[in-house]
Amino acid sequence: MSGVLKIRSVKVCWRIDEDPDLSFLGKFTDVESEHAIERFPDGGGDLRVCRYFVPGLTAEESGDPGSPRRDCERMEAFVRGDWCMVGGWAQAEVVTPSGVSHTVRSGGLWGIESDSGDGYYEETAREQLEDLCAELGYFGIAEDESRAALADVALFPGE
User: Is the pTM higher than 0.85?
Assistant: First the structure.
């Protein structure tokens, strides 16, 4: 089967996670509870916005007294659109001898904070390319052919 499919193109894709799980940070609520942080202690604030934030971890659980407040600030920054969650994967377009095109993807990684830094994005992209190489092997594409196709792939959009 080796050599039946040919790699036409390879790319790394990044997308905004439209429904991220931010429960690790905590949640907004209108219900006061033991560990809830009052967001508008001076009585200000928008009545359409939840009054409290319940952190994902208490100060005792995290071992850091400032952690709940920072998590609240981080969640508020998310709501303002200062950052978002994204996902990334690598994909290859492969072609059969008859010209039929198929897309093969790596498993992908979601839940990446958009402001994680270029180093983390690069590491993730390289891991996804490695996963893609393994996936292509299942389709009978030789590792040396896969590695050659992956060699010059842009890791970030616009490269």
Answer: no
**Residue ranges of the alpha helices (H) in 3-142?**
59-62, 67-80, 118-138
Q: Which residue has the tokens 């402001």?
A: 115
Task: Compute the radius of gyration of the chain from its Cα atoms.
Answer: 22
The per-residue pLDDT for range 64-91, each reduced to its tens digit, is: 999 999 999 999 999 999 999 999 999 9
Identify the burial level of 109 via C-beta atoms within 10 angstroms of its C-beta, where 0-12 means exposed, 13-18 middle and 19 or more buried: middle
Which run of H or of E encompasses 144? helix 143-150
User: Are 113 and 85 spatial neighbours (Cβ–Cβ below 8 Å)?
Assistant: yes
Residue 1's pLDDT band, with cuts at 50, 70 and 90, is: very low
Strand partners for 53: 28, 37
Per-residue pLDDT at 159? 52
Distance CA 85, CA 77 (A): 12
Burial class (CB in 10 A: 0-12, 13-18, 19+), 67: middle
